[in-house]
Amino acid sequence: MNNLIEHLIYGLDLFGTAIFALSGVLMAGRLRMDAIGVIVLAAVTAIGGGTIRDLLIGARPFWIQNTTYLWVILGTAGLGMLLTRLPKRLPWYTLPLADALGLALFVVIGAQKALSFGTSNMVAVVMGVITGVAGGMIRDMLAREVPLVLQKEIYATACIVGGILYTGSLELGLGALPAMLISMVGLLALRITAIFRHLSLPTFSL
Amino acid sequence: MNNLIEHLIYGLDLFGTAIFALSGVLMAGRLRMDAIGVIVLAAVTAIGGGTIRDLLIGARPFWIQNTTYLWVILGTAGLGMLLTRLPKRLPWYTLPLADALGLALFVVIGAQKALSFGTSNMVAVVMGVITGVAGGMIRDMLAREVPLVLQKEIYATACIVGGILYTGSLELGLGALPAMLISMVGLLALRITAIFRHLSLPTFSL
Amino acid sequence: MNNLIEHLIYGLDLFGTAIFALSGVLMAGRLRMDAIGVIVLAAVTAIGGGTIRDLLIGARPFWIQNTTYLWVILGTAGLGMLLTRLPKRLPWYTLPLADALGLALFVVIGAQKALSFGTSNMVAVVMGVITGVAGGMIRDMLAREVPLVLQKEIYATACIVGGILYTGSLELGLGALPAMLISMVGLLALRITAIFRHLSLPTFSL
Q1: Does C122 lie at the interface with A, CB-CB under 8 angstroms?
Q2: Would you say residue B42 has pLDDT above 90?
Q3: I want to staple B140 with a disulfide (CB 3.0 to 4.6 A). Which of A119, A199, B147, C139 is the partner?
Q4: Main localisation, per the record (chains A, B, C) (predicted)?
Q5: C-alpha distances in angstroms, C13 versus A84, C45, C67, C104?
């Protein structure tokens, strides 16, 4: 049973990696990069956040131990370049929803890994957010755009809420699995509402 | 006595963190970010330099151990969004002078921490400079601007001078406190002169 | 004999550092930076890739142990600012060819160091590529340009080929030196062909 759940989490993690890689592929296509540029942008988007988290908490980057993540990125980049027309045939909300699912898992996994390296709850929330958004931020910096996650519909905000729900549930004595479910449901509810209602936080300007 | 000085340094360090965070808030306001973008930009500016220094010398990032820095950033971001009109009512040199004070301390703290991890004097100077300028450089990269510190009035230069004064004073046998004072006075004198006289190094162009 | 080869590799490594630093100097000149900006951009370009590699594999950044690299960068920045007209008097292919030689060595050194820290062959190739291209990518991000290496004539591609040739040769039982030569010759052949024929991979666009 426990083993089944671990496999499910691992599978979702690889799924999230593929979805994040795909968003890098789409950006590379807009910038007319060659195949290698596509792979680099896919990799940076998919594993950039987790890599920064691992460096900060003192872990060896996860993809150095397990190269499956790199193969998923290579496969996504290859498929993404072949099937360039596919995204246009899918309903518009397909990619945002898949991204939300990957994001929810990345945030929980990031917060969990930080806690297992002995951080406080507050730092675990920060690490969850970094896992979720830093890859996309580097992708946008490479593409010379002001990072979308700093402006887009309740994106980083949803990560913060997800991280607080996760560490808060653990603090209340819930097990890892219920805490994970509560956090992911909360984050997904927020992101899905924002996607379909185009909700944004009020912006602050001088 | 020694304890008092340590408290003073810690207080100045938190003050510098708040000032650097505020410069991130002001940039976020110019880019019309939402509250989360404001917090991210404030955090990157305030603790980015020290974080890179810690990763390079093999230390655990300082804010993972002591989350007071994160609370100072949150508080500054919150206050900064409430008091958007305040900066305009202060004399124009208020923020640059506060920034110079924070900078002077960041450089000395960065160089000192590097030395305590066994680096050479030259690397300690580099780490002092990174502590002082890297956060602002990442802030500018996120905002799609060529980093100001690479162009502005004797900014990185002042950090180098401060770092050399600090390690040089220690090398001459002075204690940590006199070395710190000499370095900070030198750096502040240079920055304050540059601020009021609008001094810049000659630029190099092809 | 072995000692001679080690000296040769070290000399080529410093030569590559100087060449990469020079490309940072040229970029700084185009951006009209001051002397410190020139040094920062030279340093980021020359040691940025190796530094990221070292952080990822858990090594102490190489220039913290051996500050010769920093002195080479300082010297190159100084000379580069004095001799601004020199590049225009050299044949146009001088700098690209020198860069290709530095690149070939950086890739091999990066892959070798990763293997010596116990990574798999695939990760070693990734580390070779990072050593070769990450410095230039940060340089371009600081200069607000979409990284050239993601778009330019078979640049990152040549690094991947070089990395695969190196790890593949070792896997086939060849010694470190023949593997190194095969890898460098392959990478150089690819880069030199691309430079003179202006070859590029087909770009991918949406």
Answers
A1: yes
A2: yes
A3: B147
A4: membrane
A5: 41, 14, 13, 10
